[in-house]
């Protein structure tokens, strides 16, 4: 019998908005207590590779590496239109300079780094940093470019940086489907995975109906304290796909995960990606 459920999530506003009600007993939850583990998404990716968490937020870049042990839930994802990472620099750089530019990324297994690999136009050295260290590194000239995620999408201009390429626009123009950024994975041997999927959807429904309930919880964990940025962050990264992936969301994830697997010479599991 499961005595407790470990839950990995990032401290970013989209995750704290979605999971607040579940973690605070405002919606029906599991019989076993849920123990949250807040961490940067690349740390969560590493923990998933080690199968250290029962349920966790992960990047699409790590999906092919963990799917024998995990299954993806249909609730809690960050997926949508016009939400992709941005490649930024101190000044406009011609496209011929992209290939050899030193690039800061938020981690080797992040969706941002995967999109750079898929694009193919960025062949220079990659320096992996915490997401909140990337813009300062670009601003100082430690790197030529950086690919930014989370709140960086709304704050890079404050640091005098320029948007060189919107990777979401590139993805949407290439594949004509929404971009999956992060998904919720549960251990395949976890008997309460279906119950957790239902609980996450209920938690998000509560957050949408009572947005003020989660305000202090979100602020307590956020990197960026500007409330306009927080609202924009939630509006951008929490979508109807977060409530239920549906056929289009699952197809988008399968597309990106399949291409990630091909890049690394891996096979996705025959038993499928998603909890039925």
Automatic annotation (TrEMBL):
* Gene Ontology terms for molecular function: carbon-carbon lyase activity
GO BP of this protein: menaquinone biosynthetic process
Using the record for this protein, list the coiled-coil segments as residue ranges, or answer none.
none
User: One of this protein's Pfam families, by short name?
Assistant: VitK2_biosynth
Q: What reaction does this catalyse? A: cyclic dehypoxanthinylfutalosinate = 1,4-dihydroxy-6-naphthoate + dihydroxyacetone
User: Is the keyword Lyase assigned to this protein?
Assistant: yes
Q: Any idea which positions bind substrate? A: 57-59, 111-112
> Pathway it belongs to?
Quinol/quinone metabolism; menaquinone biosynthesis
Keywords recorded for this protein, A-Z = Lyase, Menaquinone biosynthesis
- What does the record give as the active site? 150
Give the enzyme class.
Answer: lyase
Enzyme Commission number: 4.1.99.29
- HAMAP family, from UniProt? MqnD (MF_00996)
Family the UniProt entry places it in: Belongs to the MqnA/MqnD family. MqnD subfamily.
Q: What does this protein do?
A: Catalyzes the conversion of cyclic dehypoxanthine futalosine (cyclic DHFL) into 1,4-dihydroxy-6-naphthoate, a step in the biosynthesis of menaquinone (MK, vitamin K2).
* Entries under PANTHER family matching the protein: 1,4-DIHYDROXY-6-NAPHTOATE SYNTHASE (PTHR37167)
Q: What is this protein called?
A: 1,4-dihydroxy-6-naphtoate synthase
């Amino acid at each position: 019998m499961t005595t407790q459920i470990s839950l990995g999530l990032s401290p970013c506003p989209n995750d704290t908005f979605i999971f607040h009600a579940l973690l605070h007993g405002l919606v029906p939850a599991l019989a076993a207590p849920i123990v949250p583990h807040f961490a940067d998404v690349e740390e969560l990716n590493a923990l998933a590779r080690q199968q250290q968490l029962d349920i966790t937020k992960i990047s699409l870049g790590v999906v092919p590496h963990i799917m024998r042990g995990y299954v993806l839930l249909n609730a809690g994802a960050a997926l949508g239109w016009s939400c992709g990472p941005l490649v930024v620099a101190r000044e406009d750089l011609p496209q011929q300079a992209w290939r050899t530019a030193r690039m800061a990324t938020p981690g080797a297994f992040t969706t941002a780094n995967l999109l750079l690999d898929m694009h193919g136009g960025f062949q220079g050295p990659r320096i992996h940093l915490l997401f909140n260290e990337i813009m300062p590194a670009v601003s100082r000239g430690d790197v030529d470019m950086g690919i930014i995620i989370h709140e960086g999408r709304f704050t890079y201009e404050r640091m005098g940086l320029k948007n060189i390429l919107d990777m979401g626009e590139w993805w949407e123009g290439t594949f004509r489907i929404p971009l999956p950024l992060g998904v919720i994975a549960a251990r395949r041997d976890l008997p309460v995975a279906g119950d957790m999927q239902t609980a996450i959807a209920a938690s998000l429904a509560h957050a949408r109906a009572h947005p003020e309930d989660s305000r202090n919880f979100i602020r307590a964990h956020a990197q960026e304290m500007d409330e306009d940025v927080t609202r924009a962050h939630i509006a951008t990264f929490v979508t109807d796909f977060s409530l239920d992936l549906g056929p289009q969301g699952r197809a988008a994830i399968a597309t990106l995960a399949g291409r990630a697997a091909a890049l690394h010479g891996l096979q996705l599991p025959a038993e499928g990606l998603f909890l039925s």
